[in-house]
Amino acid sequence: MTQSTLSAGIRELETLIGVTLVERTRRVVRFTPLGERIVDKARRVLRETEDLGDIARAAGKPMSGELRMSVIPTIAPFLLPRILPRLRKDYPDLKLFLREETSAAACDGLHQGRSDCVLLALPYVCGDVEIEPLFDDRLFVAFPDGESERVDSPVLAEDIDDTRLLLLEDGHCLKDHALAACNNPDLRGQATMMGTSLHTIVQMVDNGLGVTMLPEMAVKSGILEGTNIVVRAIEAERASRKIALIWRKASPRERDFRLLAQALAAAH
């Protein structure tokens, strides 16, 4: 739909109901308070409409038809390559559409109806949802070559050099999980936020620019191949994140989500 068509449709609706829904100036276009209420109601109506199709699919063959899943960037490249071939084999009638986005965007998309379920890491507040925990994903400290011995003993949180800590930028929940693992209130303000992806941060560490924290699934997936980085587990109360599948409460496709969760848990 073009912008002009959309604008004409909104004006026609305003004429039909006799109220102004959008404030228009030369520089700004915004919804009126009533317009915001109608938009919110319209979104709920659209979600209910989509549920009609979900109800029909749920009554038929399990794990079939279209399913839209959002996945956060610190999970997608490490878990999906292992699970997608299995899903294609076990559920050939399932058309899985994937969207990679941060936790905040994924949760918003779930409640707005843009996605059916979200694969993310907990703890993270995502509103009124059903949660199916899958597995724990331990956190490791990654050191440049020569800064740590290649030993199996864990690193104490207080021994991490917070002045050289490289973390993902704001918006990635792994940053919060890493800071929580350190259990150091001063670290939140001192940590250097530099990376937009774990692959970028790994290259920074390999070039001696600092240390970082990596989830176990990334390490097992070979993110350190071609580097001289040494990783050691963290000894702390919250030295892991919990991977989970979430979906809207009362969704008619709960059976599909439970089956998908079982497949994801088995793949890790």
From TrEMBL:
Q: Which organism is it from?
A: Stakelama pacifica
Alphabetical UniProt keywords: DNA-binding, Transcription, Transcription regulation
Q: Where would I find the HTH lysR-type domain in this sequence?
A: 1-32
GO molecular-function terms, A-Z: DNA binding; DNA-binding transcription factor activity
Q: Which PANTHER family match?
A: TRANSCRIPTIONAL DUAL REGULATOR HCAR-RELATED, TRANSCRIPTIONAL REGULATOR OF OXIDATIVE STRESS OXYR
Q: Which PROSITE patterns match?
A: HTH_LYSR
InterPro entries xrefs: LysR_HTH_N, LysR_subst-bd, WH-like_DNA-bd_sf, WH_DNA-bd_sf
Where do transmembrane segments lie in this chain? none
Family membership, please give it.
Belongs to the LysR transcriptional regulatory family.
Entry-linked CDD domains: PBP2_OxyR (cd08411)
What is the protein's name according to its record? Transcriptional regulator
Gene Ontology cellular component annotations, sorted alphabetically? protein-DNA complex
